[in-house]
């Protein structure tokens, strides 16, 4: 099964991320957004960041997770290529613990692709069949 794929959206980029588990699908969603920004194969796993979020449902959790990744990218000037996600149900909805690894941006080393301005809720979805499929659109 592929980890992620992109689809055309006017002036934006949409992606679908896949996984055998919800955790794996969220990890692949992280990989998908950073592959929009740069080639994730060239991003070392030198520095670790951890964070936790709680959201009322799976779609909101996906949005909050992607927003948090974009926040660390912009505030710490980092690119990420390694994502470890644990999701569990809690009374308030869903709780996510993430450990992400990457390195400081060096545009002499990293390929500069497309900058992401924002994550959107437009057509965002979390679907489970024989596997998990996440869909999101990012604003460029």
Task: Give a description of the structure.
The chain has helices spanning 22-37, 58-76; strands at 4-9, 12-19, 47-55, 78-90, 93-104, 118-128, 132-139. The chain has a domain at 47-108: 3-Layer(bab) Sandwich (Archease, Possible Chaperone, Chain: A, domain 1). The longest helix has 19 residues, at 58-76. The radius of gyration is 14 Å and the shape is globular. The mean pLDDT is 96. The strands form 2 sheets. A 4-stranded antiparallel sheet has the order 1-2-7-6. Strands 3-5-4 form a 3-stranded antiparallel sheet, covered by helices on one side. It is built from 2 helices and 7 strands. The chain is 25% helix and 48% strand. It is of the alpha+beta class and 140 residues long.
Q: Which CATH class of the domain at 47-108 applies here?
A: Alpha Beta
Uncertain parts: none
Provide mean pLDDT, rounded.
96
The biggest beta sheet is recorded as: 4 strands, antiparallel
Q: What would you call the structural class?
A: alpha+beta
Number of helices: 2
CATH homologous superfamily label of the domain at 47-108 = Archease domain
Q: What gross morphology would you assign?
A: globular
Helix content: 25-40%
